[in-house]
Design goal:
- This protein is mainly α and 89 residues long.
- The protein starts with a helix and ends in a 6-residue tail after the last helix.
Length: 89
């Protein structure tokens, strides 16, 4: 499993660059929700797919939705957003 830092480095290697405030928001969400790295990475991935850029408020909303619905894995997160029609996957 990749850490959040590893995932962000991987994304930067693919051309997704995050502003310092975005990285701060990502880690704030991680600590605020106490979510696993896998779930944080899924929230980042789905935010980028939905918004075509990193949107901190969308990311936080998505992450809080995952936590309140007891979503724990990337697979479950993708199934959830697909089932709820939150994103076209």
């Amino acid at each position: 499993m990749r850490t959040v830092e590893q995932y962000l480095n991987e994304l930067q290697g693919k051309g997704f660059y995050f502003q310092e405030d975005s990285i701060g928001f990502i880690y704030f969400g991680k600590h605020y929700t106490n979510a696993s790295d896998e779930l944080i990475n899924a929230a980042i991935e789905l935010t980028l797919k939905a918004q075509k850029r990193f949107d901190g408020s969308f990311y936080m909303s998505l992450l809080e939705t995952f936590i309140s619905n007891k979503i724990e894995s990337r697979k479950d997160a993708i199934a959830f957003v697909t089932e709820k029609h939150l994103l076209a996957m």
